[in-house]
Amino acid sequence: GAVVSQHPSWVICKSGTSVKIECRSLDFQATTMFWYRQFPKQSLMLMATSNEGSKATYEQGVEKDKFLINHASLTLSTLTVTSAHPEDSSFYICSAQTGWGTGELFFGEGSRLTVL
Amino acid sequence: QKEVEQDPGPLSVPEGAIVSLNCTYSNSAFQYFMWYRQYSRKGPELLMYTYSSGNKEDGRFTAQVDKSSKYISLFIRDSQPSDSATYLCAMTASAGSYQLTFGKGTKLSVIP
Questions:
Q1: Cβ contacts (< 8 Å) between B25 and chain A: which residues?
Q2: What is the tens place of the pLDDT at every residue in B73-102?
Q3: Quick check: bond before A8 cis, omega within 30?
Q4: Fewest C-beta atoms under 10 Å: which of A3, A9, A91, A116?
């Protein structure tokens, strides 16, 4: 199957700093990528849908100025958590859709963010 | 009421047992149903993808959808320790949409 790589897999940062997480589709071009957040024992919550070359679409309740998403190429999307606070500590997962329309969805390995 | 309800478990079974995992949902627009397996600290991987009501079998896994009851199930036959993971149900209203609604996931442990 296709491979989606996330980096870093673990990150610890101080409160108030910004953290960037990368999501790459390694062997296919992803026109659409999705970012999720998963708290312990909770379901994946979709944060935003990212389309290459256009602005991300954020889900209700997700602050777009805090969670900056950039999808500059067909193989890379980045999520930047700005001015991170302890409540932003979570498991962030991206997924990438192959092709258009009914393309298959592949998930990255996730990035665990801990804000001290 | 949440859109998708899934018992988080944990569920422990002996090796070789038949496992039944379930989700209920409230949105009658959901047409496409998926089961994902997520190992600890890893991203989810797709196990089964079904459309509308009925059964779908793939090896030891069987996915069942009952749209009239808004109820989906995943059965695992001859469970193995390597099946120990969290299983998430997910669903969406249209084939082209991957804006999935996920259940909380059920943590399964298969004891050797």
A1: none
A2: 999 999 999 999 999 999 988 766 677 889
A3: yes
A4: A116
